Amino acid sequence: MGKAKQQVDQSMSTVQTAVSSLQQALISAEKPENKTKIENAISSLNVACQSLSTFQD
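Given the sequence above, the corresponding structure tokens read:
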């Protein structure tokens, strides 16, 4: 496996950890506008992971 692929895989793992943390934050968020911001961030991070999942070295 190439170095770039290793770095992409590590980055995806970090992003997935961030998504999990944001999902926990979403549960405890009270203001609707904050829930929306968190949901948007989760969606963006998931799109990034989907894009990177096709990375080939």
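The chain has a mean pLDDT of 95. Try to locate this feature in the token string yourself.
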